Amino acid sequence: MKIVVLDAKTFGMDLDLSIFGEVGEPEIYTETKPDEVSERIRDAEVVVLNKIKLNETNLFHAEKLKLICVTATGYDNIDIDYCRKKFIAVCNVRGYSTQSVAQVTLAMALSLCTSLPQYSEYVKSGLYTQNKAANHLEPVFHEIFGKVWGIVGLGNIGRQVALAARAMGCRVIAYKRMPEDGFDCVDLETLCRESDIISVHLPLCEETRNIINKEKIAMMKKTAIFINVARGSVADEKALALAIEHNRLGGLGIDVYETEPFDEEHPYNRILNNPNVCLTPHMAWGAYEARVRCIREVCENIAAFYDGKIRNRVD
Asked: Model-level pTM?
């Protein structure tokens, strides 16, 4: 069974990918340009990918292809309708990055609430030594104990963030289409108005695209911290940048973008150096342990498929 891995570089170059040899004959490419996809998958029975887009254009000649495995939970880069029509199975990986994304979400919130980079820079710059004072308390920072943390999306990651937020003394409210026992579920407008910290943990689909729009952002407290570690397109990036520029938000933490990487014209370039902004390069999912789990899960998906079992199928 020929397994073609298209963009191994996106898994991190520190992983041992020889595990694919346990379930087939791997052909591993560090990266693949769009115009190289068709030729590389032409004889593949299994394709493994992360960010590459697969659709009718590049799948058309892959006549031996039986299974596509995405090394992620989201699969909006794969034309599922075409795969169904051609009887190509598609598997994702669920739950592998829960702890990693929750950890980065919490880290972003704590860093923005406590202005840690600014305090660290004060010491590194030598000002702490030069000013001779035992302590320094500018900028002012606040406890998150007693604050309201609004969670948009209560999947595995959202629940883990809720657990962490509660442990820090926050009152958690959540937005979920179907209310869930054990959570104070509210409508999105209420969540936007009442929350001191808002974190988004939604998959991208037509219903969630731009669900955080300029109207919702306008409802948020001027002191609110907004964090998106889900998909860039679930929030209006222009409106978020404007909110920061006009002091309509207290802080912004973003790990995901509509276009990755974003270009020089992107509105976030205007706020890169704002002290209340934390932008990271789509890394929240990628703790070493999470990536190891992900690759193992993909291999189990492949083995299950060839054993005639249904596992993590999304087609």
From this structure: 0.90
